[in-house]
Specification:
151 residues; two-stranded antiparallel sheet; four-stranded parallel sheet; globular; Ribosomal Protein L13p, Chain: A
Length: 151
C-alpha cells in the first residue's frame, strides 16, 4: 500500500481560507443560532478543519435584537454577574438585558460554545454582532447563509 498518498493535511495560519458570512437572526431561536454560528466560527464545517488552528470564517450577525426565546425564558432566564466585592452579585432578566444591550445575549451564547482557552478568545474576535440590519462589512462581500439550510 502506498502510504504517501494518505498524508493528513494539517491547516496552518498561512494555508487557511477565511471567508465572510452573514446570518440574519430575525425570528431565529437563540441557541440554534448560536450553535450554527459557533460551528462556522470554529471551522468545523470545512474539510480541512484542524483543532488547534483558527480555520473558521468571519461571522456577521444582523438583527440581533429580533431573536426568539422559547417558553418562559424572557421572564425566567437570568444573566448573573459579580463585581468581586461581598454582596456584589447582580441578576438581570433576559427581557431587561435585551432592552439594555441587545447584542449581549447572542455574544454570550456563542462565546459559551467556543473553547475556553487562547484559541477560543482569538476565534471570538471573528464574530461581529449588530442590532439592526445594517453592518459596515460590505467591502468584504459576505455571503448570506440560512440557519435552516446549514447542516
Amino acid at each position: 500500500m502506498n502510504t504517501l498518498s494518505y498524508k493528513t493535511i494539517s491547516a496552518n495560519k498561512a494555508t487557511v481560507n477565511k471567508e465572510w458570512v452573514v446570518i440574519d437572526a430575525e425570528n431565529e431561536t437563540l441557541g440554534r443560532l448560536a450553535s450554527v454560528a459557533a460551528k462556522i466560527l470554529r471551522g468545523k464545517h470545512k474539510t480541512n478543519f484542524t483543532p488547534h488552528v483558527d480555520c473558521g470564517d468571519n461571522v456577521i450577525i444582523v438583527n440581533a435584537d429580533k431573536i426568539r426565546l422559547t417558553g418562559l425564558k424572557w421572564d425566567q432566564k437570568e444573566y448573573i454577574s459579580h463585581s468581586g466585592y461581598p454582596g456584589g452579585q447582580k441578576v438581570i432578566k433576559a427581557k431587561d438585558m435585551m432592552a439594555k444591550k441587545p447584542t449581549f445575549m447572542v455574544e454570550k451564547a456563542i462565546k459559551g460554545m467556543l473553547p475556553k482557552n487562547r484559541l477560543g478568545r482569538e476565534i471570538f474576535r471573528n464574530l461581529h454582532v449588530y442590532q439592526g440590519a445594517e453592518h459596515p462589512h460590505a467591502a468584504q462581500q459576505p455571503k448570506e447563509i440560512k440557519i435552516k439550510d446549514f447542516k
